[in-house]
Amino acid sequence: MTQKLAAGLIIYRKLAESIEYLLLQTSYSENHWTPPKGHLDEGEDYLTAAVRETEEEAGLKEDLDYTFLSKTFSIECNYVIKGKEPKKVLYWIAKMLNPNTEIKLSHEHINYKWLKLSDACEITKYDEMKCVLNRADTFIINNMKN
């Protein structure tokens, strides 16, 4: 069975002393909450897919709306879809340049929320995503410049 490949961004904003994460609620299946992410197009690398998917799903553009914390650090998430199909997702971490930038959802999502880590982990139903968010939070705190 072929492994599905996807990429996305863990987008955060800093408000006062608080870090909040952007999660989008899907318009399909179980309406679960996830960071912007999606499948790689043919011939596309992971990072390019993450940037493209973020713009498509949330209307956010690199360097205009967000900046990468690091393009060399990514978090790999592996899981099985519906008990059959293996999936690999690579996430990079990006910081919003303006914490009040408007999020423009695509047809693939019905809602979005900015959430503190504990709330983000509570709303996402998958342990793998909780692990990704916790690893991202640790990386952000250890690498925060301001």
TrEMBL record:
Pfam family for this entry, one: NUDIX
SUPFAM superfamilies, alphabetized: Nudix
Record-annotated Nudix hydrolase domain positions: 2-137
Transmembrane stretches, start-end: none
Top-level taxon of origin: Eukaryota
GO aspect biological process, one term: ATP biosynthetic process
Keyword annotations: Hydrolase, Nucleotide-binding
GO MF annotations in UniProt: bis(5'-nucleosyl)-tetraphosphatase (asymmetrical) activity; nucleotide binding
Family annotation (InterPro entries): NUDIX_hydrolase-like_dom_sf, NUDIX_hydrolase_CS, NUDIX_hydrolase_dom, Nudix_hydrolase_domain, Tetra_PHTase
Family membership: Belongs to the Nudix hydrolase family.
Protein name (Swiss-Prot/TrEMBL): Bis(5'-nucleosyl)-tetraphosphatase [asymmetrical]
Organism for this UniProt entry: Brachionus calyciflorus
Organism placement in taxonomy: Eukaryota, Metazoa, Spiralia, Gnathifera, Rotifera
